[in-house]
Amino acid sequence: MATVALVLGVSLLFGWAPLGAGATSQPPNIVFLLMDDMGWGDLGVFGEPSRETPHLDQMAAEGMLFPNFYTANPLCSPSRAALLTGRLPIRNGFYTTNGHARNAYTPQEIVGGIPDSEFLLPELLKKAGYVNKIVGKWHLGHRPQFHPLKHGFDEWFGSPNCHFGPYDNKAMPNIPVYRNWEMVGRFYEDFPINHKTGEANLTQIYLKEAVDFIKKQQAHQQPFFLYWAIDATHAPVYASKSFLGTSQRGRYGDAVREIDDSIGKILKLLQDLGIKENTFVFFTSDNGAALISAPKEGGSNGPFLCGKQTTFEGGLREPAIAWWPGHIPAGQVSHQLGNVMDLFTTGLSLAGLKPPSDREIDGIDLLPAIVQGKVIDRPIFYYRGNEMMAVRVGQYKAHYWTWSNSWEEFSQGIDFCPGQNVSGVTTHSQEEHTNLPLLFHLGRDPGERFPIRINMSISSKAEFTVPVQNLLLG
Amino acid sequence: MATVALVLGVSLLFGWAPLGAGATSQPPNIVFLLMDDMGWGDLGVFGEPSRETPHLDQMAAEGMLFPNFYTANPLCSPSRAALLTGRLPIRNGFYTTNGHARNAYTPQEIVGGIPDSEFLLPELLKKAGYVNKIVGKWHLGHRPQFHPLKHGFDEWFGSPNCHFGPYDNKAMPNIPVYRNWEMVGRFYEDFPINHKTGEANLTQIYLKEAVDFIKKQQAHQQPFFLYWAIDATHAPVYASKSFLGTSQRGRYGDAVREIDDSIGKILKLLQDLGIKENTFVFFTSDNGAALISAPKEGGSNGPFLCGKQTTFEGGLREPAIAWWPGHIPAGQVSHQLGNVMDLFTTGLSLAGLKPPSDREIDGIDLLPAIVQGKVIDRPIFYYRGNEMMAVRVGQYKAHYWTWSNSWEEFSQGIDFCPGQNVSGVTTHSQEEHTNLPLLFHLGRDPGERFPIRINMSISSKAEFTVPVQNLLLG
């Protein structure tokens, strides 16, 4: 009952009502701009020293910035599964059983994907009359039963996997590109990516797909959900010819500049069509910058430790901006701890829908934080595969397990924490600290460099860990 | 002649003329807000995750942000000497001769100070009718001949040294506090600083000194120069009672919040008095955050390597904002490479004065960058004591010497690069690389974590080093 009351209350505040309540006004359009391997530190507004994201910075100036926003997993597939289901990967199935604390994902040779039993946001939004489109990377399975149009999307332009390649052989063909049910070509063959020059016009194609969809839906007077999951900042990074060589940061920066420009164009389109006050836009990324690809093909996690694949802040803390003129006052900064899973619940709330009641939902409705400036008390769980490695409660983060990557990988030159070596923290073996978690204050020490030394009695330790476990199981 | 033309040209643009040209209109007031040990990463606008500097962020939104601004030395005394003389410490005498690559400063027991032969900015501004006040830390010598009122300042409220202590003994008395020529008390005795609680109301006193001076000068219709060199962010950090415990970042953050609030009040006063369009304000810091004091008593250098005392970016890259409503368009970001020494030359230019012609001046006039958006080609030299350790040209930085701190200090637990260990870069012995400088691209790799591997021929190496040396000697 509390949930229903909240949904109605918020709906009245925004001047529309859930369709189920018999109202005629339309719920807002929803646009999620999901970046690939972009780091917290890649935006000017989050301190990138070259300041090359004027449109995203402007979006933040007109909306709400979330400096404490997280993903549910530091790797692309489970992160995207969490966003679309509102659930931790250990609940929605996106974890691996063949190794402890190893993240799952769906490369070309994997036969798994998003289970049919999961409700995805677009499936539910359909009940409120939404038309749903995914542009870009799906990454939740490439077999027919996992196709996005079987999971609530009405339209798709993009690929089931990363733009790795070229493979160019029969046993391992290049990654296909789809328009809806139809395979319209393959990367490298029909959609060229030049590794040598870095040139590819994919971001322009993805921009056109977004623009065309928004214009079409606006003409049809139906609410829409656009999931713009582009991938120019994932190695091999790429940019169109007119952006190549324009960044002070090299090719990775060229990709960021083209994305920034494209987002500027999408927001301007919403304004020009007169629907900006009826379109909720949220910008974030799927996981931290891939420092293994840095600096030429990887981004920046700003002041945070390590990157993609790890459960340090650099792995899961994400840039995040909410934009909804007329509803979010300009220039706001929220101290809400947020998570990509919240986009599921918030999306439902915007549509006047309740989350499914037959399963645990980990995402919370962010609208009270976004529209009313509230701060909702909630923990952040840092998973790696099947293992909850760390928990954040308020400004404190407790590591129950630490691990950067294996000695074996490290000795081969693979380093998830290059130039960073916090003794006893960035460990190369999986080290358990459940009896005495490694504690950090993220306000004083955002870089997780100074573990707090505590004299912890059994009782005070119990006070800290028990509520967290209750919440997790709860 | 080129310089004269430029000064006249800029003056006409701003609607005043140098006094020497017989004009009646008054040159703008000048306010330098110089922080102590505040890091690049401590401001919301530079990406501090807690976003607790709304007034400084607003100052940036109304003015011009410099993400590529430097100090001349990573320690307080030589940095301040460089700011006020426009010259590198090796020229103005603020270096030590008793150890290679060791920074000089002026603790209580040192008898040296700023040489009489140096021209300080306030001395020269007097010629244009300015009244000059220093509030806060002088740090250029405490013997009578070094007194700020002997070097161009008309008024002083503050101390000759850091607020270390309490000493409370005859052989080593507490640091004195002066009002002009008169010693009005001592830290701890008359101006309490409570190490246990962190409480001290010094920032409020320094704020009142600034406010009273601005009001008085405004009534007298004389141009003024205010050098507000406060020190709440230097360990032991402090804040007034009403700010203690208000930051998510702990006591250091409390100090930052009080400073941010005070700067908001100073800018508002300029607005309320109707003189904001006739007052040039520049905000920066004397050196990088002191990571040896972090996280409880030290700040953040954002994505940059190491901190105070070192010649990595964390040691010398500074937060910097220029504010001058009506002259600087709002929301600008300049890619100009700037230096605190430029404040000397820019201050003279604002006053319609030329720099002294009988000596080398290392600071450049930033007005073309600030007012016309130009980017002036110039290198940045990273000195440590008598040794030029590194040079930045464009996005490239070449380390000729590397050194974090000695093995001896390091083994005692003193670490200028905590949690950071870039192999072959953060060396604990003084390592020379003059034959093959250690090269970084600061755009792609602001954290100096990925040395560029180059196959350098003798001729290409010569091309890189010769112009730099010419500039230095020239």
UniProtKB/TrEMBL annotation, chains A, B:
It is found in: Lysosome. It holds the Pfam family Sulfatase. GO terms for cellular component: lysosome. Binds 1 Ca(2+) ion per subunit. Residues 1-22 form the signal peptide. It is an enzyme of class 3 (hydrolase). The active site is at residues 76, 139. Glycans are attached at residues 201, 421. Its main location: other. Ca(2+) binds at residues 36-37, 76, 286-287. Its EC number is 3.1.6.4. Belongs to the sulfatase family. Homodimer. This is N-acetylgalactosamine-6-sulfatase. It comes from Monodelphis domestica (Gray short-tailed opossum).
